[in-house]
Each structure stands twice: as C-alpha cells, then as structure tokens.
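User: I need a structural model of Cysteine hydrolase from Pseudomonas cedrina subsp. cedrina for a docking pre-check later this week. Nothing fancy, just the predicted structure tokens so I can convert them on my end. Input:
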Amino acid sequence: MQPPATNAALLIIDMQQGMNQPKLGRRNNPDAEVQMERLLGAWRQSGRPVVHIRHISRAPGSVFWPGQPGCEFQPALQPLAHEHVVEKNVPDAFAASGLERWLHARSIRQLVIVGVITNNSVEATARSGGNLGFEVTVVADACYTFDQSDLSGRLWPAEDMHALSLSNLAMDYARVCEADKILVYCERNSHARG
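Assistant: Understood. Predicted structure tokens for Cysteine hydrolase:
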C-alpha cells in the first residue's frame, strides 16, 4: 500500500445515529468506531481533508428519514466546521452528489474509506471510486455490517458479509488494510515534517 498523500481524503460513510438502531440487527467489528476515531484524529492532526457522508433516505420507514435523530452524525464523529459534508440518497456517495467534482477541484487522487455498511454504501462508494480512477483504500477494521438474509432466506453472519464484501473490493476496486497500517504511515509522515 502507498502511504496516504498529504491531501488523501478520509471518507467517513453514514456514521449517523440511525446505525445504532436495534432493528438493524447484530453487527460485526464492535471496535470499528474506535478505529474510525483514531483515523479521524490522525487526519485532523495532519491537516488532510475529511469528507463526512450522510445518507438521507427517501423511504419513510428508514432510520435515515429526514427530520429524525437517526439522520444526525454520531457525536464522536461530528464534522468540524471546515470539513466537507456530502448528502446522498443512494448507497453510492458519488451518485448525483458532487463528490467527484469536489475531489478533482482539490487534486485529490487518494481516498481512504471507513464507515457503514461494508457490503452496501462502503462497497458501492469504493467500487465507484476505483472505477473513476481514484486510488481507494478501504480500512477493514474501521467498517462494519449486519447479519443479512439472502434471497432463499438463509441468514449470513455479519462477519461473512464483511469478509466477502472486502474480498470483492480487493479484486479490482480498492486496497484493503487495517487502521494500524495507515496510522503508521501518517505518524512517519508527521515526524518527517516535524
């Protein structure tokens, strides 16, 4: 993996309060938020760009329906005033959101993606980013998903959904690594500048 460039963007996907709703079911990676916070702290300390992506649903029963507390960002991952916020209505954060234009305007070529749901919005966004020519890294331990039933009714554990989604991405669209690996690069970079 290439070290994150000084303008590599951290994309934090859908870390809204609605993700804590029990109706979403059992999840994997219980420490994912801790890893996200570590990465966010490193990005802020190094002055790299942070993009917060918020899902605004068009489905009335959704935890992300406008005007509900579920739409709000989780307190530990609140955007700062100067950090970019993108709103989306579909899983892919690039679809009709202006994100690609915003990144190109700042000559950003590297994206580090964290958040939820691994096999939904994270995967959709990483696939688009890779297809659009960005150098995409998905941080495995800073993402999570939920148990999910397939079309035949078989229930698949969140751990399996997560692993298969990351494997799909690693084939053609993104690099997949752990938070510690990226944080080591960030730390080396800050020591080199200091």
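Before docking, keep this in mind: The CA atoms of residues 95 and 193 lie 36 Å apart.
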